[in-house]
Design a protein that fits this description.
- The chain is about 25% helix and about 25% strand.
- It has about 300 residues and is an alpha/beta fold.
- The protein starts with a strand and ends in a 5-residue tail after the last strand.
């Protein structure tokens, strides 16, 4: 059974709190698992969330600040300890290669798994599979940072009324899909494009072109909202977004489900992030992330 959901492992920025672990997010996409920004404590959070090392196929790191990457050492060693039987690929900014190397070999352990390093140094597609295209866009932060976007190929939706009008039924439905036409009836006469689902992961950044490009048309957008709107100047100084900025981005991009996360420890009322996001005019589905919650990818349009 295919599952498409976000498993939130941690939601704190810079400093963890009693209720928020450092960053960590697992995207389950059918039979694959993509781990984003494993901060300190991610391995423990995986255990609490029921996520196994065997679930991981890719690791995507946006940048090498500790709250987004210190968990790499433990996760990589756990992958090897559990002898994950498939290849695991790691994407991260090439400019941070020295940090990745230090984290990968932070302590002694036995390497048993093929961990493929695929550093990012340019915008655009990173990998194309039959199930999705994974691409990167540069963000605006004090250190080099990339956001990630996963796009499913468009498909076809058969239209029962038009099939019936042309007398196409049973095995002939599959035949017209395979051959492109049947008895002079073209496939596009009895079908329509079914847009592929789109997911984006946007962490530490100011507003920039990359933020908008990643968010465009997303079914599920996970985006940082470190600060509240009254601290917008502070957010810009430190290379971050506010709740209102994140929500306006989602509104303008036509995002269906917005997930706000990466909250500063200075705020005690998480509901204020939702209030400010709504005040910014976002009317879609909205989640203020909590550790260990699961957020399903919306059903296809």
């Amino acid at each position: 059974m295919s599952v498409r959901e976000l498993v939130v492992l941690g939601t704190a920025s810079q400093v963890p709190t009693r209720h928020r672990n450092h960053n960590g997010y697992l995207l389950r996409w059918d039979g694959e698992g993509i781990l984003f920004d494993p901060g300190e404590g991610t391995q423990r959070q995986m255990l609490r969330a029921g996520v196994a090392a065997h679930d991981l196929n890719r690791i995507c790191v946006t940048h090498f600040h500790g709250d987004h990457s210190l968990g790499l050492a433990g996760v990589i060693q756990r992958i090897n300890l559990d002898r994950v039987p498939h290849e695991v690929t790691a994407h991260y900014p090439r400019s941070g290669q020295r940090f990745f190397d230090r984290l990968r070999y932070a302590t002694a352990y036995r390497e048993t798994v093929a961990l493929t390093e695929a550093p990012v140094d340019t915008e655009g597609p990173l990998v194309v599979t039959p199930a999705y295209t994974l691409e990167a866009r540069r963000l605006s932060h004090p250190v080099e940072s990339y956001g990630y976007r996963l796009t499913e190929p468009d498909g076809l939706r058969m239209l029962p009324e038009r099939l019936a009008a042309h007398g196409i039924e049973g095995p002939d439905v599959g035949r017209i899909q395979r051959e492109g036409s049947l008895g002079g009836v073209p496939l596009d006469e009895v079908s329509e494009v079914r847009p592929g689902q789109r997911f984006a992961f946007v962490m530490d950044t100011r507003l920039c072109a990359g933020v908008h490009e990643l968010a465009e048309g997303c079914d599920l957008l996970v985006i940082e909202s470190t600060f509240l709107d009254e601290d917008e100047e502070l957010a810009a100084d430190h290379g971050h977004l506010t709740a209102g900025q994140a929500a306006r981005t989602a509104r303008e991009a036509g995002v269906r489900h917005l997930v706000l996360t990466h909250f500063s420890q200075r705020y005690s009322d998480p509901e204020e992030f939702e209030r400010q996001a709504r005040a910014a005019g976002y009317e879609g589905e909205l989640t203020v992330a909590r550790d260990l919650m699961r957020v399903p990818v919306p059903k296809r349009r």
